[in-house]
Amino acid sequence: MLVSLNKIFLFIIFLLPPMLITGPAIPDIIITLSAIFFLIQYIFYDTRSNYSLKKYPIWLLVGIIFYFGSNISSIFAYDNVGHSLSSSLPYIRFIIFSFLIIYFILKIPLNYFIIVNIIGLSIFLVSIDICFQFFYGYDVFGFPSTPERNAGPFGDELKGGSYISKLYIPVFSVFYYFSLTHKIYKKICIILFLTCFMGIFLSGERAAIILFLFSNIVFLFLVYLSDLKKYIVILSSIFITLLMTSNFFLSDKFKDRYFVTTLNEISSINNIINSHYGAHYLTAYNIFLDYPLTGVGQNNFRNICSHEKYSKLKSARINDRCSTHPHNYFIQILSDLGFINFIIFLVLIFSFFYEILKSRRDTHKIIFYGKIIGLIVIFWPLLPTGSFYNNWLSCVNWLIISISICKMNKDYTDKLLSFLK
Asked: How far apart are CA 61 and CA 348, in angstroms?
């Protein structure tokens, strides 16, 4: 009976990557039910597992400390304690879910490659749908295109590019490793790269295209570190291809969005401060200065930013300072949860990287690079982000964290390659 339930929930977990396309509701249900089921099984039926208490990873312990710290900040929230607690209390489900995925991968390593392939297929299909939407005015689900933004199956939720860029590099690194011995995966890598680039590019999401290009440049540099001439040739070929391809599709509105607007915003510190994002950052930072110890409570930026005192801050867009969140994970944690929890948050991030570095000798270097870069893409501090507590984003982020920090043994990977032959 328990074995059958395991298979059912494993199948449901495999559905998570494509179900993320439907919005936050179904993925959140999957994660919540899976977390509850896993806790019941782990506590009552799996106490003799090899993954015993002594082997609990550091990231899990730090994550639990961060969770309790978030709730303490919410209890002492400046305003609307109920709203803060409704966000912080259920957040534990994402930490449990991440542990669940790692647990199932440790038991059956093949699950890792199944998840990776499902993610690869999902981002490929989303990219194709965005391209289809750009050319025909509507995607396959009937969602209309706009002059400079396309989200494909996400409809009015403009996050198709974010979905692709975040999930891309951990998948691409595995496929790239397979391509060293399997010609079919060489073709898959080329098709996936070009399709994802076009999907992200046509989505109009500037942060997504920057992270996509950054992750590919760094990944190829690390792979070809011992052969820089080959790296330069490959990189030059890629950029020429992308330049020719993107220029063909580049309307004036796309050019203005990607180049003119971006260059204007980053050309000086004042331009950043005077942007609407700058107004969010400045307001959130000043909220932190007013409530440095425990912040104003999780997800409470929206309730505090409208206070009159913050309207006097020096930004040309200060009247646009309010939003549901400050659009940067680090600034959000700082203003919502205070300095102590911010330090715990940094320790949590470093514990993820530590977990990957700890298993470096047991992981093929190409897959290892993908894991590291995948985490950097999530936590890159210099670009605008969504809310760290957002259900949909949390589903995506913790899925990437899970497949990045889980240990992937070289011996099993080699056996899988032999099987694929």
From this structure: 9
Token pair belonging to 278 = 């700058």
- Closest to 139 measured CA to CA, from 119, 166, 158: 158
- Name the pTM for this structure: 0.88
The full set of domain ranges for the chain reads 78-267+359-420
Contact call for residues 370 and 102 (beta carbons, < 8 A): no
- Count other C-beta atoms under 10 Å from residue 106's C-beta: 17
Sign of the alpha-carbon dihedral angle for 69, 74, 76, 82? negative
* Residue of 374, 10, 416 lying closest to 171 (CA atoms): 374
| HSE-up (13 A, CA, CB side) for residue 53 | 2
Q: CA 183 to CA 84: how far, in whole Å?
A: 52
Whole-angstrom CA distances from 107 to 7, 99, 352 are 13, 12, 20
pLDDT digit string (tens) for 337-355? 999 999 999 999 999 999 8
Give the pair of three-digit tokens for residue 64.
């639990």
Tell me how far apart the alpha carbons of residues 21 and 23 are, in angstroms, rounded to a whole number.
6
Go through the chain and tell me how many residues it has. 421
| Closest listed residue to residue 192, CA positions, set 208, 174, 214 | 174
Question: Do 302 and 324 form a contact (C-beta atoms < 8 A)?
Answer: yes
Using one digit for the tens of pLDDT, what is the confidence trace for 64-96?
Answer: 999 999 999 999 877 778 888 988 999 999 999
Q: 195 and 124 in contact (C-beta within 8 Å)?
A: yes
Residue 321: what residue type? Answer: R
Residue recorded with tokens 């106490």 = 47
Spatial separation of the C-alpha atoms in residues 138 and 136, rounded to whole Å: 6
Span 295-301, average pLDDT = 89
| CB distance 205 to 254 below 8 Å | no
> Is residue 298 a contact partner of residue 74, using CB atoms and an 8 Å limit?
yes
In the numeric block, which tokens belong to residue 396?
Answer: 């995506």
Produce one character per residue of 227-245: b if its CB has 16 or more CB atoms within 10 Å, e if not: eeeebeeebeebeeebeee
Question: 164 exposed, middle or buried (CB, 10 Å; 0-12, 13-18, 19+)?
Answer: buried
